[in-house]
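anyone seen this seq b4? input:
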Amino acid sequence: MADIFREIDEEVRRDKAAELWKKHGWVVTGLAVLAVLAVAGWQFWLHRENQASQAVGARLEAALKSSRDGDGAQAETILKELAAQAPAGYRQIARFRLAAETAKRDAAAGAAAFDALAGDASLGQLYRDLARLRAGILRVDLSPYAEVKTALEPLAAPEGVWRHSAREFLGIAALKANQFEDAGRWFDAAITDPQAPQALRQRVELYLALVRGGPVTVKN
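predicted toks r here
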């Protein structure tokens, strides 16, 4: 008897399932088609993005090669194109490279280009500070020590990400201006920082030797 009731129950379930499929089967089929199309569309988008990224990367490499080969004009042309049209990440790289390339032929113009990056609120603070550092470094040979100090001193704070380079070039700027006390202070701050890179320590040791020697008197 139990087997008979079980068969009847299964028959009723099959009938209900068939009825539901007749009423709503098109919904299930439609959803399945949409899922397949969505996956296909996503894969196609990823493929196109990958192709575009490879093309932009190739253009950036072409700019770097032109720079290495001494063709600054061609490098700048490509970098300007990328800075205007490339995706966000590549665009940022291109802008920094373009400022550096500009500085090769005109240090003042390069410093101004880095100033523009430092003032761009769309960039993260880390990159804005890097731009300030690069502009300040360029001005070591362009501007009075007081101006270089104003630009770089905020970056030389104990927790500053770029403090090592900022201190080094503050010391160099002071040394060039015969401000030996300031130069010694900046070089000491650089060399006593436990996280200072070894290469920087070696350079600063040489600078400190110049500081200890004091001003050179030239007899006429």
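The two ends are 128 Å apart (CA to CA). Residues 145-213 form one domain. kinda curious what u guys think
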